[in-house]
Amino acid sequence: AKSAILCFKQLDKKPSSAAPHGLNHSNCIVYQNAKDLFRQLQSLSDEGKKMLYENTHRWAMEHSTKAEAQRFLHIVHHQPLYVS
């Protein structure tokens, strides 16, 4: 993911409870259709591309399988589930 920019079609229409979590305009290109995606890609400055590369990479590292498992275990450890 170091040299990739995430692109997510109609992210704004995704239910907030649905994965992926934490994506927004700062770490991916949110687009509505192919024309919108190509327009946004062509209008990105070098600085904008660099920012998106860095933020995409940060998001990917924070949402890796290992990171998600660690978050889950932390929650379970601090909020045990009791079955009666």
Uncertain ranges:
none
Distance between the termini: 44 Å
Mean pLDDT: 90
Strand order of the largest sheet: 1-2
- Structural class comes to mainly alpha
Which series of helices and strands comes N to C?
Answer: EEHHH
- Helix count equals 3
Strand content: 5-15%
The description of the largest β-sheet is:
2 strands, parallel
Principal-axis shape equals: elongated
Please describe what this structure looks like.
The model has no long low-confidence stretch (mean pLDDT 90). The longest helix has 17 residues. By secondary structure, the protein is mainly alpha-helical. A two-stranded parallel sheet has the order 1-2. 49% of the residues lie in helices and 10% in strands.
In short:
With 84 residues, the chain is mainly α.
For this entry, give a set of tags:
84 residues, mainly alpha, two-stranded parallel ribbon, 3 helices, 2 strands
